[in-house]
Write a structure and sequence with these properties.
Blueprint: E1 2-7, E2 10-15, H1 22-29, E3 48-51, E4 54-57, H2 63-66, E5 70-72, H3 80-91, H4 101-114, H5 120-127, H6 137-154
Parallel strand pairs: 1-5
Antiparallel strand pairs: 1-2, 3-4, 3-5
Helix pairs in contact: 3-4, 3-6, 4-5
Organism: Phyllobacterium salinisoli
GO molecular function: 2 iron, 2 sulfur cluster binding; metal ion binding; oxidoreductase activity
Keywords: 2Fe-2S, Iron, Iron-sulfur, Metal-binding, Oxidoreductase
Length: 155
């Protein structure tokens, strides 16, 4: 079946089964490989994308459901929150292996779009669905605080 899907501001027409997980449409059909496969059961967060602005796991989201939404991947996430997170990630040297980073960043950007000054608890809750194999959780939390402070100073 053919589906029209909005990804990163562009409409793509894809010929995939409606039950195909969005992750595989992004990676295999659209060649957007920034979104990673980690577990396939929505537990690790490596496949996180924004669906109508909300972070969701693309490995379990069927194409037929995703086709009615606006999808944003790591390749095109933009805005002041995204730039502040990227700056803080680099300054704090957050990634080690880097595998989880696209999902971590997508979740962190969504958090800062909803909470301007998150607490440690807010960060822990928002990021709890993202597993880091290298356990850089303290640097991730510090980077999110840094990004929030940068955004606060800019306002």
């Amino acid at each position: 079946m053919s589906y029209a899907i909005s990804v990163n501001g562009q409409i793509h027409h894809v010929e995939d089964d409606g039950q195909t997980p969005l992750l595989w449409v992004l990676r295999d059909t659209l060649k957007l490989t920034g979104t990673k496969y980690g577990c396939g059961v929505a537990q690790c967060g490596a496949c996180t994308v924004h669906v109508d602005g909300t972070p969701m796991r693309s490995c379990t989201l069927p194409l037929e459901v995703a086709s009615s939404a606006r999808i944003t991947t790591i390749e095109s996430v933009e805005g002041v929150e995204a730039q502040a997170i990227r700056d803080a990630w680099v300054a704090r040297d957050v990634p080690q292996c880097g595998f989880c980073q696209s999902g971590q960043i997508m979740s962190a950007v969504a958090l800062l779009r909803t909470l301007k000054t998150p607490t440690d608890r807010d960060i822990d809750v928002a990021m709890s669905g993202n597993i880091c194999r290298c356990a850089t959780y303290n640097r991730i939390r510090a980077a999110i605080h840094d990004a929030a402070a940068q955004l606060g100073a800019a306002r």
